[in-house]
């Protein structure tokens, strides 16, 4: 790639302003024109750098997530006429369409919409999200419960990072996880999964505590960020129920648009379902590939291959489940254990394809500067350099 620009944080201002303006203006035939400056802005950002590998990677993810939300909300969805908020008690009827409200109320509505990527508190909230905290949960009880959860997550993250610091397979000067044998490879993949889960979940938990403590939202507006790991006994259920669901809204709308509007497939047909499946993972692949390209400064990352292998694996397990049902095989605890082993084996096989280029770029070379485990064990509360 060419020499990168120095990233300027001010570019967020026109980007967010364009998206918010497109959501806040009253519906009119040419609203899609607001999207025109977004692709060149995105191209500029992906060719820029902050000078830090992990910061570039996260910046690329955030920017591209908003890009696809903008594509959904500006190009595919008449947002003010179709998306409605649900009252906090979730028993009254959804609020009326917003298009006839004042500009101030429409702008506030647009901000809340962008701030709800999973659709929490909206009619388009997915039914697969974990249960909301009970209505009437006190702020104090919620904060205490989530702080306890945050401590648990920090310890999990701490343990996984200590393993990464100890295990030379995670460092950028090693040949990679595939060079050390299947047992170590499986252990390393498990460590990465725990690290990623605890990091994202910890940030979401702290954010929920901040919002509730400041009175910006109510406890019942913060369902857990991830589903139950017990649901992850197939690859389809892992991504469709146990994972965070941040992309569910826009991958679904783009998949349905391609299947029904472009290809003219019948809703509910197997062909339509699999077109939507491959579209969803293609978008996810593009998001992660764009972020890794921004961080690595080349196109040879592994995200495209890793994410496009997922729908292939899901089709395979769909076929096996269908054949098993035809043969009269019923689900049970033993079969679920087989499912968990299959998911773990699939990750062990494919995750290094995506993670090794990132690891060689320095993705694992940073960690939180403090450690509870080492602090209690050795008195080393501040971590030494890598």
From TrEMBL:
The chain crosses the membrane at residues 6-25, 57-76, 335-354. Signal peptide: none annotated. GO terms for molecular function: O-acyltransferase activity. It comes from the Eukaryota. It is found in: Membrane. The keyword Transmembrane applies. Residues 222-309 form the Wax synthase domain. Pathway: Secondary metabolite biosynthesis. One of its GO terms (biological process) is lipid metabolic process. GO terms for cellular component: membrane. Keywords: Membrane, Transferase, Transmembrane, Transmembrane helix. InterPro entries: Wax_synthase, Wax_synthase_dom. Pfam families: MBOAT_2. It is a multi-pass membrane protein. Belongs to the wax synthase family. This is Membrane bound O-acyl transferase family-domain-containing protein. It comes from Mycena albidolilacea.
């Amino acid at each position: 790639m060419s020499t990168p620009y120095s990233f300027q944080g001010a570019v967020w201002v026109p980007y967010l302003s364009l998206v918010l303006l497109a959501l806040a203006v009253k519906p009119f035939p040419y609203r899609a024109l607001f999207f025109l400056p977004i692709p060149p802005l995105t191209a500029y950002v992906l060719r820029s750098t902050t000078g830090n590998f992990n910061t570039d990677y996260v910046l690329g993810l955030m920017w591209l997530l908003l890009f696809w939300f903008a594509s959904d909300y500006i190009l595919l969805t008449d947002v003010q006429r179709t998306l409605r908020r649900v009252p906090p008690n979730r028993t009254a009827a959804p609020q009326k369409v917003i298009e006839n409200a004042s500009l101030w109320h429409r702008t506030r509505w647009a901000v809340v919409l962008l701030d709800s990527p999973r659709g929490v508190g909206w009619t388009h909230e997915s039914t697969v999200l974990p249960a909301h905290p009970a209505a009437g949960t006190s702020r104090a009880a919620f904060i205490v419960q989530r702080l306890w959860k945050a401590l648990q997550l920090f310890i999990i993250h701490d343990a996984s990072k200590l393993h990464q610091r100890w295990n030379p397979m995670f460092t950028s000067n090693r040949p990679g996880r595939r060079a050390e044998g299947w047992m170590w490879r499986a252990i390393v993949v498990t460590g990465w999964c725990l690290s990623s889960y605890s990091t994202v979940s910890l940030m979401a938990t702290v954010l929920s505590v901040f919002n509730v403590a400041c009175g910006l939202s109510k406890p019942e507006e913060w369902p857990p960020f991830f589903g139950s790991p017990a649901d992850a006994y197939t690859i389809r259920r892992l991504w469709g129920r146990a994972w965070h669901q941040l992309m569910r809204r826009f991958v679904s709308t783009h998949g349905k648009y391609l299947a029904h509007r472009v290809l003219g497939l019948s809703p509910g047909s197997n062909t339509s379902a699999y077109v939507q499946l491959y579209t969803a993972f293609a978008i996810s692949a593009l998001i992660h590939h764009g972020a890794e390209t921004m961080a690595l400064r080349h196109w040879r990352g592994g995200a495209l291959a890793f994410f496009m292998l997922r729908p292939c694996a899901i089709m395979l397990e769909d076929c096996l489940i269908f054949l098993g049902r035809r043969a009269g095989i019923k689900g049970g605890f033993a079969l679920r254990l087989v499912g968990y082993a299959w998911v773990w084996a699939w990750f062990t096989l494919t995750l290094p394809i995506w993670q090794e280029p990132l690891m060689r770029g320095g993705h694992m070379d940073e960690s939180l500067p403090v450690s509870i485990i080492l602090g209690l064990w050795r008195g080393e509360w501040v971590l030494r350099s890598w």
